[in-house]
Amino acid sequence: MNFSIFSDLFANAQAWVFETIVQPLMFYVGLGEYIEDAFEGVEWFLIGVCQLVILYILLRPLEAKLPVHKFTDPRARWNDFIYTALHRLGAFSVLLFFVLDPVLDTLTGLLHLEGVNPFNLEDIWPGMLDHPVLVFLLYLVVLDFFDYWYHRASHQFNWWWGLHSLHHSQRNMNLWSDDRNHLLDDFLHGIYMGLIAIAVGVEPGQYILLVTVSQMLQSLQHANVRIHFGAIGERLLVSPRFHRTHHAIGVGHETRGKGTLGGHNFAVLFTIWDILFGTALFDKEYAMTGIRDQLPSPEGSGREYGQGFWHQQWLGLKRMVGRDRPRDAGHKTLLRQDPAHEPFQHQQPAEQQGQG
Predict the structure, then answer these.
(1) Mean pLDDT score, 45-60
(2) What are the helix (H) ranges across the chain?
(3) Within a domain: 168
(4) Is residue 105 part of a domain?
(5) Which stretch of DSSP H or E encloses residue 169?
(6) Burial readout 174-191 (b: 16 or more C-beta within 10 A, e: otherwise)
(7) I want to staple 324 with a disulfide (CB 3.0 to 4.6 A). Which of 10, 46, 290, 319 is the partner?
């Protein structure tokens, strides 16, 4: 089956879902003025369905064949799947994009009246639009650069880490763990990336595809698989091993001698940002994941990050405002840690040691 046939099938499915279900419902509830945005939302929903199917078919067998660790909590994967379904099917980022688009259009019009032409990435090279693949890759690199700094910033401030630490608290990291985030953190991220995308000239259709490609690669990065891209490949693209180091206990989110927060391997897609800005750590081990203060005393303080979706969201808000305390309040936790404390020595699980 060639791409054009798949594209036609997808377009027909989008039209059928929109005309049969979404459009009548929109008019029934009095939201006809948003009908165009709803059509784009159907596209995002169907792309999300395709993502879930592809990820399950490709990555679940790999997790069974090449696991890094055995699961200690059978509910962990299911709870992360709820996060993934909400994000991939809910059009979270795209809705923010369409909310921000008219705002920036108004701002652009005002700038034109003042004789100021806003920057557009496609203007730097005349004729670039004749090379759509190159344009797509350029946008992907630019957005990834800004995403690196957003991710790095979430590890620098206690209130922000209070939200983002939910993502790192998964001890049983798996293919669905990419979207295990606090909703408030995702809201901030969506606004940030949407503004960047619009500012550099990304069209709505392009943005959907850019987000989809990024999401698929990030799902691979979080999968419970013993996979790396080699010495050269890992310096080009973030691999599951490289990103696993970012989630390593005492390594990925701590910087010794520079306060309590920091870490390594913040790149979302392209490793070059970590290399250029001195945050890369190429570790050949497949580390155990989690946060130091989750561990029992004396290594940690037994902090609870929640088991279910809503409990995790609530505890994230409490951590953000400093109202969540670990079980052993006297122990120096990650958020109040002695900078001289030795990093946790992450090791491969015993059943995996000695494997390639």
Answers:
(1) 93
(2) 3-17, 23-28, 35-65, 75-90, 92-113, 132-153, 158-168, 183-199, 204-222, 230-233, 240-246, 272-276, 309-320
(3) yes
(4) yes
(5) none
(6) bbbbbbbbbbebbeebbe
(7) 319
| Number of structural domains in the chain | 1
Tens digits of residue pLDDT in 82-93: 999 988 887 565
Residue 102 clears pLDDT 50, i.e. is over it:
yes
Could you give the angle at which helices 75-90 and 35-65 cross, rounded to 10 degrees? 150
3-state secondary structure of 289: strand
Per-residue model confidence as pLDDT tens digits over 305-325: 998 999 999 999 999 998 876
DSSP state of 211: H
Residue span of the structural domain in which 90 resides: 31-336
Q: What is the number of alpha carbons within 13 Å of residue 19 lying toward its C-beta?
A: 6
**Distance between CA atoms of 302 and 329, rounded to whole angstroms?**
10
Residue 32's Cβ-count burial label (10 Å; 0-12, 13-18, 19+) is: exposed
The amino acid at 321:
V
Residue 319 tokens, joined? 């951590």
CA distance 220 to 237: 12
What one-character-per-residue DSSP string does 44-81 give?
Answer: HHHHHHHHHHHHHHHHHHHHHHS-SS--S-THHHHHHH
Q: What amino acid is encoded at 253 in this protein? A: H
The answer to the question of residue 136 being in a domain is: yes
Please provide the size of the chain in residues. 356
**Is the torsion defined by CA of 199, 205, 210, 216 positive or negative?**
positive
CA distance 146 to 323: 31
C-alpha span between 327 and 293 (Å, rounded): 10
